[in-house]
Design goal:
The protein is built from six helices and eight strands, in the order ααββαβαβαβαβββ. The protein is an alpha+beta fold. The strands form two sheets. It has a five-stranded antiparallel sheet with strand order 3-4-2-5-7. Strands 1-8-6 form a three-stranded antiparallel sheet. α3 runs antiparallel to α5. The longest helix is centred in the last third of the chain and has 27 residues. It is elongated and about 85 Å long.
């Protein structure tokens, strides 16, 4: 009971809004939303590369893929990619069974070997060299190029610039609404930011069978970073 009385006393003592204390109505409000977008030229590219090997035993498969990966890393270094810009993202070793033949002959699938898959992610600082890096990887024995996306180094700076643009657009819209209503625009009472948007990785698949003497053409284009905002303004004479 003492806690309840203390809570009620605290609620009574809390200051009410100015208009409530003076018996005035709450200010009228308008709510506006806007999206700001900025475009940036890509500064980096990230390429995902897979090397595969199959052999009769697990040991032979791992040894084979280790040798192929060393060959790939050497080719990447010669293409100007430092070792710290190459990161392993997946390593798999699994048995391979002759399911198709077993189904055809209606018998239990037989173990025919082991397959190892090593996937690495390569960061390329010069986007105009992406095609050359891909060609070097394929020529060095890469079996698949499983992903490619472009990015900018400072995404947060681009997002904040988009946010500032969104706020200016929202303010302009609020001023026009107030002018059309013949009312003065008051201060911002609430500001809420929505989710920003950064372009996701683009799908890109290239099989080793596509090896050609011509270089791989890559067009990075531009990236758009966006940010939304919703602002509540007071409107009318206080």
């Amino acid at each position: 009971m003492r806690r309840l009385i203390g809570l009620l006393t605290l609620l009574v003592l809390l200051p009410a809004p100015v208009w409530a204390q003076q018996g005035e109505p709450a200010p009228r409000r308008i709510t506006v939303s806007a999206v700001g977008e900025v475009e940036r030229a890509p500064e980096q590219a990230v390429v995902s590369i897979a090397v595969e090997a199959q052999a009769a035993t697990a040991r032979e498969a791992t040894q084979q893929i280790a040798a192929e990966m060393e060959q790939l890393l050497g080719a990447l270094r010669r293409a100007g990619i430092p070792r710290e810009d190459v990161r392993t993202t997946s390593y798999q070793l699994y048995p391979v069974y002759d399911h198709e033949r077993a189904a055809r002959e209606q018998r239990e699938a037989r173990l025919v070997g082991y397959r190892a898959v090593n996937m690495v992610q390569v960061t390329v600082d010069a986007v105009d060299q992406v095609g050359r890096v891909i060609d070097s990887a394929v020529q060095a024995g890469a079996d698949r190029i499983t992903g490619l996306h472009f990015q900018i180094r400072d995404v947060e700076a681009a997002r904040l610039e988009a946010l500032e643009l969104a706020i200016r657009k929202a303010r302009t819209e609020a001023e026009r609404i107030a002018r059309a209503l013949g009312e003065p625009l008051g201060p911002a009472l609430e500001v809420n930011t929505g989710g920003g948007y950064v372009p996701p990785p683009r799908p890109f698949v290239m099989e080793a069978a596509a090896r050609m003497d011509v270089s791989t053409p890559i067009e990075p284009g531009t990236l758009t970073v966006s940010q939304s905002v919703t602002i509540v303004y007071a409107i009318g004479t206080p």
